[in-house]
TrEMBL record:
Family: Belongs to the FrmR/RcnR family.
Natural source organism: Afipia broomeae ATCC 49717
One record GO biological process: negative regulation of DNA-templated transcription
Pfam families in UniProt: Trns_repr_metal (PF02583)
GO molecular function: DNA binding; metal ion binding
Descriptive protein name: Copper-sensing transcriptional repressor CsoR
Amino acid sequence: MRQEIKSSCLKRLKRIEGQVRGLAGMVEDDRYCIDIVTQIAAARAALRRVEEEVLRDHVAHCVEHAISSGDKADQRRKIAELMDVVSRADR
C-alpha cells in the first residue's frame, strides 16, 4: 500500500474508532435509538470509504502489476480475488 493511502486510511480508521467509542457511550447512556442507528450508519459509511480507498490502491498497484507482468495465472488470480472481495462486500 502506498504511504499516502496508508496514512489516509489510518487517519480515517482512528476517527471511526472514536465514533464507535461514542456509540458505546450512547448505548450506555440510553440515548434515543434513532440517534444511535444514525451514528451506526455514519460509521458504516466511513468504513466503506476506507474500504474503497484500499481497493482502489489495490487495483492501481497489485492488479495493474499482474496485468503488466504478462503472467496469465497471476492475472486470473488477482481478478478472481478482486471479484470475491467485491461480491462479499455487497452482502
